[in-house]
Amino acid sequence: MAKQEVTLFWFRRDLRLEDNVGLCHALQSQYPVIPIFIFDEAILDSLPKNDARVSFIHESLSKINQKLEAIGSSLMVKKGKTQNVWQQLIQEFDVKEVFFNKDYEPFAIKRDATICKFLQDNKISHYSFKDQVIFEEKEIAKADGLPYTVYTPYKNKWLEKYHSIAPVPEYDATNKFSNFHKNDFAFPSLNEIGFVENPIKVIPHNLKNVATYHETRDFPALNTTTYLSPHLRFGTVSIRKLVNWAVRKNDVFLSELIWREFFMQILYSFPKVVTNNFKSAYDGIQWRNDEEDFKRWCSGTTGYPMVDAGMRELNQTGYMHNRVRMVVASFLCKHLLLPWQWGEAYFAQKLLDYELAANVGNWQWAAGTGCDAAPYFRVFNPEIQLKKFDEKGIYIRKWIPEFDLGYGEPMVEHAFARDRAIATYKAGILK
Fold first, then answer.
1. Positions of the site: Electron transfer via tryptophanyl radical (predicted)?
2. Cα separations (Å) of 336 from 125, 370, 419, 420, 427?
3. Neighbours of 271 (CB within 10 A)
4. Smallest Cα–Cα separation from 234: which of 115, 73, 57, 34?
5. Which residues are annotated as a binding site for FAD?
6. Confidence class of residue 1 from pLDDT cuts 50, 70 and 90?
7. 273-428: what fold?
């Protein structure tokens, strides 16, 4: 019996049917389109079985599947090593074309190169598209073609290019939904994938406070955050729709979206930053590598309320307010003189919005070792930060219920820690 001729669309960091570039192109194929998602064991095997992000991915896929079922189709979900899954797919179907959206992280680039070679060897046409960013790879570059390593000129060039084409085209494929393959694939439960529900949940995004974002963004007690970051990370929202909307609403909020693309461009152009300092001159810094101090930072028991509240919020919810992230990161690298890689790895375990480029970029910014970073001699005073941004102690009391019952002493005195950090950095910066 002849295998059915099909086109496959491969979901990855684009978990939506709306304004999905690769999917829109796939649905114009002459062959019926089977949408697929692969739970990659190369990633899953390193995660705890109750990882909240896997639960969110599963939930997002379920929503996609329900929409597909309403039009007589469904989502094919597989689990395994990616290349093995693709080998199974071409055995089961006569795959004529494969469509997917690009990913710019080193692991994904290597994976996609392997799969594209496999498809090419099997004479299967494959097409990739820009979807998770407005401008990718080398689209925003200096006059000599080199990547920007300072944010402000990058932002200016980004805005200039955006306004030359604004609004960015959006991709509506609803009139092509009839080209989805008619099928009824069994949708696996979370348990069947090998995971269990986590009580920590991704919060729906909320854009109602964007107009005043520049006034409220630094005050964690106000809870005016958009909660967008996990949705951008997994592509449950469209960056094109968001930017076309944000450019009319708030320049500071738009700047945060541009920072996201700046760090993605840095990661793409300088993949060493995943584990190494962007500024190699900082490679000589002698970190203390004190594991007991690190445990106190992780558990939120440093004696500095702003630091401890942030870490407890992270541990209990998978979120941490952006202002607080800067404070806790600076404290780890400057007050405790612990390597930024330790903090980056801990955030990678805990953050619902964990995204490699932004996490590495922001940690190196805090440590002073990255591109366009805070200077090494800038050491946040956690007590001053508390007075400026949580003067009434509303945020810290939410996460530190024992605060008014005799809260512990700081594990290190600020002035001492600041002097030690500056001296250590000075001695460690390679000439």
1. 287, 340, 363
2. 53, 19, 12, 9, 16
3. 14
4. 57
5. 213, 225-229, 253, 256-263
6. low
7. DNA Cyclobutane Dipyrimidine Photolyase, subunit A; domain 3 (1.10.579)
CB-side exposure of 294: number of CA atoms within 13 Å?
17
The answer, yes or no, to whether residue 372 has pLDDT greater than 90, is no
Cα–Cα distance measured from residue 321 to residue 379, given in angstroms and rounded to the nearest whole number: 19
- pTM of model > 0.85: yes
Give the residue ranges of DSSP H helices in 122-212.
151-165, 190-193
Residues in binding site: 213, 225-229, 253, 256-263
The position carrying tokens 């959006």 is 170
158-195 pLDDT per residue, tens: 999 999 999 999 999 999 999 999 999 999 999 999 99
Tokens of 117: 């070679």
CA 399 to chain centre: 24
Average pLDDT over residues 94-114: 97
User: Is the domain 133-168+209-269 a CATH 3.90.180.10 member?
Assistant: no
Answer for the pair 122, 96: CB distance below 8 angstroms, yes or no.
Answer: no
The sign of the torsion formed by the CA atoms of 301, 307, 312, 318 equals: negative
- Alpha carbon dihedral 101, 103, 107, 111, in 10-degree steps, equals 20
Residue in this structure with the two tokens 């089961």, named with its chain if needed: 92
Question: What pLDDT is attached to residue 348?
Answer: 97
Query: Which amino acid type is present at position 428?
Result: G
Q: Which amino acid is at 397?
A: R
Residue with tokens 């994938």, as numbered in its chain: 193
Residue spans of the domains in the chain: they are 1-132, 133-168+209-269, 273-428
